[in-house]
Amino acid sequence: MPESQSTSIRTAPCEWPIIVPTGCDSLAELDDAEPGETLPEGVAQVTSDDVIEAATAYLWQWTRRLFGLCEVTVRPCREDCTGTTYGGRSGIAHAGGPAAWSPVLLAGQWHNIACATCGTRCSCTHVPAITLPGPVDSILAVTIDDEPLDPTAYRVDGRTELVRTDGEDWPRCNDLAADDGPGTWSVRYRWGVPVPKGGQIAAGVLACEMAKALRGRECDLPQRVQTITREGVTVGVLDVFEGLEAGNTGLWQVDSWVRSQTEPPARSTVHVPRGRKRPTATTYGGA
Known about the structure:
Layout: H1 3-6, H2 26-32, H3 48-62, E1 68-74, E2 102-106, E3 109-113, E4 129-131, E5 136-144, E6 147-148, E7 154-157, E8 161-164, E9 185-193, H4 197-214, E10 225-230, E11 233-238, H5 252-262, E12 282-285
Antiparallel strand pairs: 1-9, 2-3, 4-8, 5-6, 5-9, 7-8, 7-12, 10-11
C-alpha cells in the first residue's frame, strides 16, 4: 500500500460506486426530509450520502478491504542495482568519469554494471523502470520539473512497474525538500482494485434497505429478534448477530456477492517449465 495510505487509518473505502435498484425512493427522501418529519430525533439530519458511506463501509470491511480505488501521489526515489538509493557507495561518481562499476548477479550470471543500469528478470539491457506501490489501476499524471510527461511516454507492467518507453530515463534524483519545481518529480495514480458490478449492485441494495429503515418503512433487513416462550411467558430478545461480521445480512443480493468474494476458491496448480520465466503483462498504457 502506498505510504500515504498506510500512515492513515481508513474506516471506509476511498471510492465505491453504487447501482441503486429501480424504484428505491427512500435515499432521495432522506435528503428531502424536513427536520423531525416522521423520524426519530436526530435522524432527520442523515443524508443519502451518509447512508451510502455506511453501506459501502460495511461491504468494504466484509470483503477484507480488497476493493476500491484511491488517488495517491508518490515521490519516487530510484534505487541502483545493489538495492541502495542514489548517493550510496555504489552511486558515487569518480572524477573524470561515471559512477563505479559493480558486480551484480543477474539470472545466475555475474555482470559488471554501473549505477542505475539494471536489467530485469526478462532483459539483459538497461530498462528505465521504477516500482510503484501496487496494485496500480491507472496513471493520472507524471510530473517532472513541474512539466507533465506525455502519457505515451510510459506504461505499467504487472500493476507495479512504471516503464518509460520514449527512450529517456527516469530522473536520478528527487528533491524531497521541495514540494515542486526544478529537481522534483512525482507520479499521481489510482491505487487499488476497482469495485466489480456485483459489489456496486450489493451496495445499492444495502443502502436502499438502510434508507427504508431510517424512514420507518418496511424493509427487508432482518430485525434480529428471537421469540422465546417459557411457561406461558413470551419474551422477544435480540439475537447475538451471529454471522453479521461476515456479511450475513439476510439480503441475498448482498450476502451471495460477499460470499463469492470471501470464500476460498477451489485449489489449482500451475506448472511452469523449468528454465522459463513468467511473462510480464502490460496492465496500463503501452502501444
